Amino acid sequence: MTALFGPAAAAQVQPPDYNPVVAAEAEKAVKAIEKAKAEEEAAGTEPAAFDPNAPENTLNLDLSTGGRVTILLRPDIAPNHVERIRGLTREGFYDGVIFHRVIPGFMAQTGDPSGTGTGGSPLPDLEAEFSKTPHLRGTVSAARTQDPNSANSQFFITFMPNPGLDGEYTAFGRVKSGMQFVDAIAVGEPPAEPSHVVRATIGNDVPPMSREELLAFVAPAQRASAAALSAQLPPGIEPDIVLPPPGTPAYAAGAATAGEGQTAPAPTIAAESDTPADAPTR
To answer: If you placed Cys at 129, which of 78, 116, 137, 173 could pair as Cys (CB 3.0 to 4.6 Å)?
Structure first.
């Protein structure tokens, strides 16, 4: 018997439907996958476990409504949005910025230094990071235009659960404490006397601002109301730093008692312009 070598031998042992081009491409793809996997293992690119107690996952908003709002950031569900918020906060970008769009029973929106709702940071817009995270009372989410990939610096805090926002806006955090100071934010689009983010910081060991520092940002009419209250109280009893102005979110629909996992009446949205989508148009 004659021994076969070279191409003739290869052709003899291959199945009838063997395609050398397809086989070569498949082998190339397998090698590429194996190489990528080996590089990931060598670099340790496994996503880090989410640590709710890590200092970099705490956003503090000292508000002119009287105190600190502490927000748990969620880099595990929206890493790029969280990194943007961290960076801008550390630059002092949010310090002194007003809540320019506040709708009772819906949300309070901030993050535009111009105060018009049309501005943002000089940084590029972010791609959407939608998730299954629900918009409950105190959810912090990125504002955007009609373009899903247009979030930049603006964000909003929901007053009550709103499942209509789920999967449509990038949720990146949740209020842990101080929701009462969100409830007291002045209402309007924009409010006549808007409430401010006096200072925003990252970290779980940053002391809150003093009453005197916060009072300097309080609107004159609210300051006068607080002073009038002080004059009526007995010595030794301190009033709240700010009296909630008329028309602040009172949750007449029952949102104040709606907790996590509970349902509440959906906010009335008369038109598309009543959603956070249209606010940051640039």
So the answer is: 78
d(CA 199, CA 216) in angstroms, rounded, equals 12
The per-residue b/e assignment along 241-250, b for 16 or more CB within 10 angstroms, e otherwise, is bbbbbeebbe
- Residue bearing the bigger pLDDT, 93 or 268: 93
pLDDT at 49: 81
pLDDT tens column, 247-260: 444 333 333 333 33
d(CA 156, CA 168): 14
Q: Is 41 exposed, middle or buried (0-12, 13-18, 19+ CB in 10 A)?
A: exposed
pTM: 0.67
Calpha distance 261→196 (Å, rounded)? 30
pLDDT in tens, 24-58: 766 776 677 677 666 666 655 455 688 999 999 99
Question: What's the token pair of residue 52?
Answer: 């709710």
Helix (H, G, I), strand (E, B) or coil at 85: helix
Name the burial class of residue 1, with classes exposed (0-12), middle (13-18) and buried (19+) by CB atoms within 10 angstroms of its CB.
Answer: exposed
Closest CA to 48 of 72, 71, 79, 73: 79
Contacts of 261 (CB under 8 A, 6+ apart): 136
Record the tokens describing residue 139, joined without a space: 């959810």
- Look at residue 156 and give its three-state secondary structure: strand
Give the C-alpha distances (Å, rounded to integers) separating 38 from 30, 33, 43, 47, 172.
12, 9, 9, 16, 32
